[in-house]
Amino acid sequence: MTNKPFIITTNEDNFGQIAAEVFIELLQSINKQKPFVTLPTGDTPVPFYHALREAKNIPAFIYLQLDEYAGLDRDDPRLFSAWLDRDILSPLDMPPQDRITFQSDAPDHQAEIARMQKLIQDKGPLDIAVLGLGTNGHIAFNEPNGFADDDIYVAPLTDETRRANAAYWQCPINNMPTHGYTLGIPLLKQAKHSVLLVKGQSKATILKRTLNETETREVPSTYLQDQQSVTIIVDEAAASQL
Ligand code: PGA
To answer: Ligand 1: does its nearest atom lie under 6 Å from the Cβ of 47?
Structure first.
């Protein structure tokens, strides 16, 4: 049987609210004390986190970090873990023991990957993977053509990704890390529910390719086409080529 993503198109103003409602409903539908969840960083989820901060009674969950720069100091404000902490995890009062995060400054990448694998080994597959979409089709730091088929690995970042990330911090691309830790597509494929957030005109072409091209390593996000439960929340600008 072929699965098809369920697409919800919304105007920009309601984007965050709809995403929050979908996420909370999914959390409530999972028969587990604390569902296992990964969440994205980036500009797209900002209104989603805003709406979650306003929402009441969000069920507790265990957070697994989706991706992180490799090689930044542990107090660098650009860390994705710091961004998520500011935007959503601290506002939700999530205790440290419910957060599984990468250590960007770990001296040994392989040891850090092994540490993360150990932390998640008895947690089972992700219950919910909330994801953003790069303009190049990346999901987390799974970059076009180059992504590895591992559950967790260190990925070289494309210039396009480094440029997009430098814009978050208004710093030159050369000041951005060249590598990042990421959950890999095999692990993300096991998620029971995936929610892809896509916003803005710059994502219109890649969203169309994500949905219409046969699964290809050139567009990593195409893996979502045939997942068992995928909800895509898209604003009108990003949906303009569908
Ligand atoms: P953005 O990033 O939300 O800032 O566009 C998405 C991504 O690169 O995954």
So the answer is: no
